[in-house]
Amino acid sequence: MSENKIIADRCESRSFVYRKLASLSPNWERSNGYALVSQISDIDSELHCAHELALCDLSHLSRIGFKGNGTNEWLAKQNVTIPDNINSANLLENGCLTARLGSNDILILDNLREATNLPETLKHQWHLDYAPEKTACGYIMPRQDSHACFCVTGIHAAELFSRLCAIDLRSHKFANHMIAQTSLARLGAIIIRQDIRDTNAFLVLVENVTAEYCWECLHDAMQEFHGQIIGVSTLINLMQ
Amino acid sequence: MKLMPCPMNGPRNISEFICGGEVEQMPDPVNASDHEWADYLFIENNLKGVVREWWMHVPTSYWFIAERNTETEEIIKTYPASELYRQRIEFNK
Amino acid sequence: MSTNINMRLPDPKGSYLDRTKTVKFMFNGKSYAGYHGDTVASALAANNERLLSRSFKYHRPRGILTMAGRDANSLVQIGDEPSARADTYPISDGLEVHAQNVFGSLQNDRGKLVELFGRFLPVGFYYKAFYKPKGIWKYWDSVIRNFAGLGKVDLDAVPYHSDKAYRFCDVAVLGAGPAGLNAALQAADAGAEVILIDENPQLGGSLNYARFHTDLTQTRSVSEKLIDSVTNHPSISIYTAAMCTGWFADNWLAVMCEQRLLKIRANAVVAATGSIEQPAVFRNNDLPGVMLGTAAQRLIHFYGVAPGKNAVVLTGNDDGYGVALDLFDNGINVKGVIDMRAQPGHSSLAEIVGANGIQIFHGHTVYEAIPGKGKRSIKGALIHEISQPGLVTENSQIIDCDLICMCAGYTPAAQLLCHSGGQLEYDANVAMLKLKQLPTHGQSVAAGSLNAVFDLNAVMADGKLAGWQAAKFAGFSTSQQPVVPDHDGAKDQNYPWPIFKHPLGKDFVDYDEDLQVKDIINAVKDGYDDLELVKRYSTVVMGPSQGKQSALSNLRIVTKETERDLNGVTVTTQRPPFSPEYVQHLAGKSFQPVRRTAMHHRHLEQEAQMMPAGLWLRPAFYGSPAQKDQCIKEENLAVRNNVGIVDVSTLGKLEIRGPDAAEFLNRMYTFAYSKQPVMRSRYVLMTDSTGAIIDDGVACRMDQNIFYVTATTGGVDGVYRNMLRWNAEWNLNVDIANVTGAYAAVNIAGPNSRDVLNTLTEDINLSAEDFAYMEVRTGHIAGIPARLLRVGFVGELGYEVHVPASQGEALWDLLLAAGKKFDIRPFGVEAQRLLRLEKGHIIVSQDTDGLTIPNEANMEWAIAGKKPFFQGKRAIQVINNRAINRILVGFELPENSPMPLECNLVIKDQEITGRVTSVSFSPTLNKIIGLAFVSPDKSEPGSSIHIKLSNGNLIEAKVCSTPFYDPENKRQEM
Fold first, then answer.
1. What residues of C are in contact with residue B30 (Cβ under 8 Å)?
2. What fold is seen in the domain A8-60+145-239?
3. Which candidate, C759, C843, C760, places its Cα nearest to that of C794?
């Protein structure tokens, strides 16, 4: 159910940019304890933007990290396939994404289209498996709260990033599921290319406490290409 | 802008890194003389030529070792710190 | 003035012009018309306006010299922009252009009187003249600056939008002339992604104006075909009207393009920047009407403007004949070609010139340009026969003319190459500076005339070869290596000594700085016998054109005067920028990250006055700035007597996890952690390897292997790096995570804090017995998962509540709602600092500095000396064997005492013995209290110390024991 009035400031979990979104009078939905923006303008114009250049807040998207000795082995036991190489991502069969940020530093993002709750399941299982005196199973990284998650889509996305960071993210240089951990507008950022079908798309994770600043930088840089902020349901629509 | 080849992240602008100073062997903190300890703390070799240094990629907080020529500014090679420090280091009373 | 004369050549001459669009602009208050595509200088030239500016020192009239934005003659004020280059600045409707460095009018500049006193203005004048008596420079400074100003800075100018962007390519090609175009094409055909950069608005470079062949149509058709292929190549990105101003390490190119600084990172670079034509040196070689041959060609071919009506071409190479033919073909009366060479080689161009009836003078030079009225133009050329290099015979004649074109030779446009380590040296065989070395970091190649290749076919092949080589550098090596045909290199391009010193001077070497031949000679005579010294003493090559027209002549003169061998001489170092940059472009859009806590906007809604704390913003206090002191007092009293809440999310937060976690903390911090009980917190103090205090916080032991450690707001990043760095060496079995941003935190403090919290907790027993001071609990606050720490920073019963950052705002809302009936009050950093001062707690980096060791801050209690090792242990042991000379103490001031400031000095016997580190009025204690470093003999409570106020007065303060408030610490342990 979509609601038109601002509900974000009454949810238990709040995106760090919910005020930016609220100023656009969007349609809200509840998910994962958050209010997410399902849509801002009509679907056709949002889809058009998504192909050209668009920014979407995915802070509600369920995610978790595991890091430290034993992480990779423990995740393997949970049937979570992690990428062979650092700085690459892997799409699981259930639509979840595993991103390898270091040799034993793994980020897991839920399927945007259909929540699998894998992050919550793994968190629960970890607490069952963890005991100080037992074999290592890594440690939890609170990625849901440490990082905001945005999605930038469209044919101008790489050029947008060229104004904010020094990595060549153009499609022929930066393959799908590659990861760049770099400086974005002078912030440490994790940039994951995850195309949505034929649409070039990047997940951008920055520290929650800098999310508002980052959002402003992305939004400002988008203006040259008439980029727009779009809702989550448009992204899901793109997936279908 | 110089490029630094990070062993984990590949070549990146040098502005993404900080230098942690020369790789130095810590003298035994108990048995070293005051002079040896002061030398370790305060005296930089500042060599002209190839030096071995600690560098960190800031966005990933990843420390590694770089060998570079201070005269030509050429970065000769970079590698994970684990290639230099393989053993657990203990301090004895 | 003769402004009604139209110098425009008939259509279709002028490749830059769109003659369908007339553009009107203003120059010195008068309206002029030109075409779209014109520059200020070309449009003025079309209107027969030759005078553009006045020179820097003598206020001599100056006009077009290079027509390429390379000289200071063309500097004008355009709108609010000083020192714009009239010869490359495009006109637009309504553009306001003014001459600069003018007293009165451009036509009649009173400043020109300076020239009469020229002999009293010797080289090094400023160094010699204005330094006596002492202090007199202050007076002359403003007079001279006023006289020698270059344009006016408009302090009210409105900045426009500018930004920066990265671009990436396999091969970057600098210069889109015949070499650059071929290089780009070759590299792109090999599969490389190419970026082609040229400062001109159109591709083609010299192909668009120079006369390589006798048959112009042949050059044009080659050019058109080449440009067509490049433009249509899918792998070539073209940036025209783009100025590459710097070439930095690892092929990082700064390119100014429109209102953007492009930061191009190329795998390999082809430098095909061509060469810069050089003036000849003779008397009055600076007056309007004397210009480079290429400037005349640019005027004709780009802008369809006749550079004059009656021309004399002074040449030292065959290109001068090409210039003569271009003039001739466009209806300009060429009165003679003055060839400095006694015996020029065979040239088909010369033959055509002769066949057209143009008189050729071999072994002659222009010795002087004869000035027209007010020196605003020329009316003739005095030519002399050359006897030996630089000298002439009496054999002379005057040729009436209004234009002298100078074709004395070239110097490579190697500035960019030199930015990253390229080097030039003089080759006496061809009288030219040539590349001695390419950039030191490799992956670059030079081509074309920059590479001393001048024959057009060879230039094109050289470009191909460079493109092939660059592609190979970048990992593309599919095609066969191109072959450059035999060619003559730079032979016969440069006349070796086009310098004719005149007894009456005004034979300019450097136009920017009005330096004549005698000035350079005198600089050497004054003892500055090295190029670098002559440069600094005379300011030669230091003007706006940075030696682009003067470096070669200067090098020749200095070398001759110092009786050195020209062969192998190198030039002064070239540094960025190649061409002036707008500071605004360098600044671009500024990125200044701001860290905001989850509750940031709630603070704003509650009228918090925010203050920066590192990258963070924190509430200083809540309420109107006008009532700051009152607000802080009320916040302070709310915590002491009731309940307050402060956002402490900015605290650094680290998780240290693993079997070696306690051992790791033992090594990083001064205290001992192995035996710390689970669910208890313990103070942490970090010293650096020299024993100085660098951070503090608390470590909470969550289980045997997991510690949750806080750090200072400003210190956590350094602490985290330090930890990672050491464990990369130690290899302890521990994982270190910086979770600062992942948790929001508040400190709810005051006698009623337990009651407020009790209304929201179900799974945590808050009673003093079950949850004692310094203990830690995990549980939920109204459903929000939380870590609770009983801490005592502000000295009251209090709880630090750490929750997931996404739920921080919800927590804040819940606590304020629950606290409403207790009249809970949010408090800011100011009140927090005051509260802790009342408790005598130090703030690291406020009450300590980079040298403070634990003993000086009364922190011996936090040192576990029995541990085998911690960072700083050895240093502290050594230092502790010596007497300390300062110690941090509490002090109080008598009633009605003035308030000292932090950093006011503590004085003893007129010596500085310490300083105030914290000071404030305590509303609880109703007196001024503070912390200060004092000498150890004054550290006993009751001692009297003297503090020097900012106004110089000394006040007496009494040392007292800390805590000032609740010395038994009963209130925080309730």
1. 868
2. Gyrase A; domain 2 (3.30.1360)
3. C843
**The pLDDT value given to residue C2:** 43
**CATH number, residue C447:** 3.50.50.60
Among B1, B16, B62, whose Cβ lies nearest the Cβ of A182? B16
Structure confidence by residue, pLDDT tens digits, C51-94: 999 988 888 999 999 999 999 999 999 998 889 999 999 999 99
Please give, rounded to a whole number of angstroms, the shortest distance from the CA of B59 to a CA of chain A: 5
Q: Which chains does chain C touch, 3 or more C-beta pairs < 8 A? A: A, B
**Smallest Cα distance from C699 to chain A, Å:** 18
Query: What mean pLDDT is reported for chain B?
Result: 94
Cβ–Cβ of C729/B81 closer than 8 Å?
Answer: yes
Same domain, C396 and C329: yes
Nearest to C705 among A67, A132, A146 (CB): A132
- List the beta bridge partners of residue C461: none
Identify residues of C whose CB sits under 8 angstroms from chain B CBs: 248-250, 252, 263, 265, 440-441, 667, 689-690, 720-721, 724-725, 728-733, 738, 868-869, 873-875, 878
Residue with tokens 């402490």: C648
From-to residues of CATH 3.30.70 in chain A: 63-143
Instruction: Return the closest-CA partner of residue C857 out of C840, C875, C872, C869.
Output: C840
- Asked if residue C103 is part of any domain, the answer here is yes
- The strand order across the sheet containing C75-78 reads C30-36, C18-27, C96-99, C75-78, C81-85
Give a yes or no: residue B19 inside a domain: yes
Q: Is residue C185 part of a domain?
A: yes
Name the residue with tokens 């070696």.
C660
Torsion of CA C488, C493, C496, C501, to 10 degrees: 180
CATH for A63-143 is 3.30.70
Q: Which two tokens stand for residue A102?
A: 């270091």
Domain end: C570, C592, C607, which one? C570
pLDDT at C920: 96
Residue C3 confidence (pLDDT): 47
What is the three-class DSSP state of C570? strand
Mutate to test the interface with A, among C253, C743, C806, C812 (most CBs of A within 10 A): C806
Residue of B nearest to C726 (CA): B63
The answer to whether residues C135 and C32 belong to one domain is yes
DSSP states along C29-70: TEEEEEEET-BHHHHHHHTT----EE-TTT--EE--S-SSS-
The H or E element that residue A193 is part of is: strand A187-193
3-state secondary structure of A232: helix
Q: What residue type is assigned to position B10 of the chain?
A: G
**Is residue B9 less than 8 Å (CB to CB) from chain A?**
yes
Contacts of residue C618, Cβ cutoff 8 Å, sequence gap at least 6: C597, C610, C611, C612, C647, C650, C713, C828, C829
The helix/strand/coil state of C720 is helix
Tokens 């710390």 — which residue? C676
Partner-chain residue, chosen from A101, A102, A166, that has the shortest CB–CB distance to B13: A166
pLDDT number for residue C471: 97
Please name every residue paired with A139 in a beta bridge, in sequence order, or none if there are none.
A67
Last residue of a domain, one of C389, C408, C427: C408
**C888, containing H or E segment:** strand C887-892
Q: Are residues C123 and C137 in the same domain?
A: yes
* B27 contacts chain C (CB < 8 A): no
Rounded Cα distance, C203 and C294, in Å = 17
Decide if C724 and B63 are in contact by the 8 Å CB cutoff.
Answer: yes
A-chain residues within 8 Å CB-CB of B2? none
Predicted-assembly ipTM surpassing the 0.85 threshold: yes
Q: A86-116: per-residue pLDDT in tens?
A: 999 999 999 999 999 999 999 999 999 999 9
Q: Do C441 and B32 touch (CB under 8 A)?
A: no
